[in-house]
Write the structure tokens for this entry.
Amino acid sequence: MYTSMKQAGLIGAACCGIASAQGTMTYYWDINDTGSNFYLYSQGEEVVNFKLYALMDPEQVGFAGSIYEIRGGDEFGSAGVVTLYDNKLDSLTDDGELQGNNDILDIEAFQFPPFFGMFDPSNPILLYELDWEVTDFFMIATLTSANHRNNSVYTDDFGNSEEYNAITTTATVCIPAPASVLPLVGLLAWRRRR
């Protein structure tokens, strides 16, 4: 009876710990090393580079791990092909499974705590990089990380961690409107205001 109560208490404590996350982990994109998740595509560019970072707030010892997916919009799946997909954490990782629509499923990104060496304490930390080779016309291509099963942050050098709440962002690549179209857009906006 005592053992059953003890197990129930441990399960309850674990559930409460998950429900009351101590911070946020923001997953954000950098397109072509511009420092932005929004990018105006120039005709003739062959490859667009995407990097996914995780920013922990409040900052702790460092990133412990996450299991997640990378999902693209319709035009990301139809107007190009992923030619590079690389999980940037070297230990305990899986690059994921590239799908026919350019989604990448079952990515496992973990690192050992500092005690074991080879630890990256960066905040934000680079988690993933992919190259998208443009093969067809598109207007707006979007990409996001999704379905984060965990967002673990180390709280000490020996492997104690806590869960953070995930905030995801969307990377957007779009073709700028031709200069000849811009006056028409302005005229339409002016008419709607009247």
Confidence is low (pLDDT under 50) at residues 1-19, 180-194. The CA atoms of residues 40 and 176 lie 6 Å apart. The chain is about 20% helix and 40% strand. The longest helix spans residues 2-19.
